Here is the input.
Amino acid sequence: MTKPRAFNQVIDRCASTNDTVRELGEMSYPHGTWISARVQEAGRGRLGHSWESLEGNLFLSILLRPSETKFLSWLPLAVAVGMTRALDLKFPSLGVRIKWPNDIWIGSRKLAGILCEARATTGSRGEFFVIAGVGLNCVSAPADAISISEKLGETVTADQVRADVLAEILRTTDQLFSSGPEFVKVEYAAKALFKTGTLIEWSGGNSGAVVGLGSSGELLVSTVAGVQGLFAEDVRATRSRG
Here is the structure.
C-alpha cells in the first residue's frame, strides 16, 4: 500500500489541530506533516488544561515519527528550544525564556504553550508517532498572558511566524533524533526561566532549589530529602539564592 504524501495546510477552523494531526498519523502520513488552523474551537494544554484559542494567533501541530523511543522524554524540551530559536531569530528583542517544562514566557507572562502527545500506530508492531502542538499568542493574549504584538508594539500575525516556527521545530527535533539530547540540555539551560539555584514550589507543598536537567530531561531539584526529579509538574518560582 502506497503511503500518502505529507498533508501540509492552513485550514480555517477545527476542534483541535492535535486531534486533526493524530488522525493523519493514524492514516500513515509521513514525518513532518503539519496542520495550522486560523480558529481552534477546543484547544487544550498540558495536564488537561484548556487553551484559549483567540483568532489571529498561531495554532500549529506537527507529526513527528522518531525512529526510536530513547529520546522521547526530551522531545517536549526540544520543541521548546526550537520555538525559542525561531523567535530569537525573527524578533531578537522579545527576550523569550522557557518556563519548566516547555512554556514560552516573556518576563512573568506566558507567550506560548506546547503539548506533545505520543500515540501507537493501530495494528502496528511497536510503531508510534508524536504530535507536537503549539499555541503562540501573536496578535492577542488571554488575561495575565502576553502576545508578540503587545511586546513589540506592532501587529504580528500567525502568517508572519508560522514558517519560521515550523522550520526550527523540525530542525531541532531532527537534530535530537540524529545526535541525541546534549545540545538540548545546553540550549535549554541558557533559556531557562528557572536558573540553577532558583527556589521553586510544586504540588503538595513541595519545594526545592533547581539543580538542572537530568539524563532523561527531568528537572532536578535539591530538597531536604535529597535530589528529586520532576517530569511534568506545574512549578512556580519563589526566590533565587544569593
